[in-house]
Amino acid sequence: MKKLTKILALGLAAALLLAGCAIKTPDTVGTVGSTSIPAGVYLLAQYEAFVQAKALASETDVNAVLKATITDEDGNETTGADYVSAKTLEGVYRYAAAEQKYAEMGGELSESDLALITEQVDTQWESMEDTYTANGIGYQSLMAWAENSYKQEALLDMLYGQDGTEPVSDADLTAYAEENFFRFSYLLLPYFDMSTFSTLDEDQQAQVLEMAQEAAGKTTSSEDLQAMAEEYLPQVGELLGNGMGADSAANYMVTGALVNYDTLTSYLGEDAAEQVKAMAEGEVRALESTGYNYGAVVVVKEAVFNDTTTLDTLRDDALWGFKYDELQQQLADEGAAAAALDQSAMNTYSPRKIKG
């Protein structure tokens, strides 16, 4: 009889499991202050943290990412799993703190805000629905996360904008812009031909660098770059064997580009970007670019502000660069101080279950 009872009990358990009763997952993972954290929002924070870890680990397999030793943004070594866990919590903390602060400050999403957010979410959902669904993330969770991201951006202006509760002075924003934005013009003498995929050898690259140095010596302002292009591009074309002439100048010149440091680095590579950063206004240098523009460049550094670029035209970008990271940390700290999360619920949604 005992053996039969045990068999019946096992059969009942299997039936319940098949019916889904034994694998019910929690709808929330607790609260942060007065904000309940839905499971879908937690899973979305976790998935975004995993994507960051994946990039740092240079791995694609989920288990490999979680086991990898990676260096975080502060230069500390950690495992992928610990990184994902920490970044997930930061995301949840910021989410809750932003919800509360935005409401406390009287923030309200307008119909136009919601229409824009919905359009963006629809596009993202269309391209990633399968991935989100596989990871337990529904459309409404994505919408809540997107609305929250908008609120975090809005808080930047509500707190630190001209009419904010703690406005950043124009003097501070101006100083930030002049230090962290870069206006420059340049002429590229390429080492690589996109149409033929031919690349100059080391000796030829050295010749082109010498040309750039000669051109830099003749250049006093960006207006001189056209003449330098007409003189030197045909010589580079001979080395590349593509017949490139002065009529190609527009493809190899940029005038008055205004960028932040990250974009400058993508243009020219880190070494060249550092040299541009150190240049004085009006200075001209010949540099080797290892970035998107591969070759030797004649760079003219110009003033950030001019007749068309004023503090008002740069205000939003400058405020973002100056205060956004600080606000993100503030929200994470406030959320952490008010957290009452359910560890057992979070354990249910282990990073090991992520579908990469």
Description:
- With 356 residues, the protein is of the alpha+beta class.
- The chain has two domains: 28-167 and 325-347, no CATH class; 180-302, Roll (Chitinase A, domain 3), CATH 3.10.50.
- 58% of the residues lie in helices and 15% in strands.
- The chain is built from 13 helices and nine strands.
- The protein has helices spanning 2-19, 39-57, 62-67, 80-104, 111-134, 139-160, 170-180, 202-218, 225-240, 261-268, 270-278, 311-337, 343-348, and strands at 28-32, 35-38, 69-71, 77-79, 181-190, 253-260, 284-290, 294-302, 339-341.
- A four-stranded antiparallel sheet has the order 6-5-8-7, sandwiched between helices. The protein has a three-stranded antiparallel sheet with strand order 2-1-9.
- Strand 1 and strand 2 form a beta hairpin.
- Helix 4 (80-104) packs across helix 6 and helix 8 runs antiparallel to helix 9 (225-240).
Briefly characterize the structure.
This protein is α+β, with helices and mostly antiparallel strands and 356 residues long. Helix content is 58%, strand content 15%. The protein has two domains: 28-167 and 325-347, no CATH class; 180-302, Chitinase A, domain 3 (Roll).
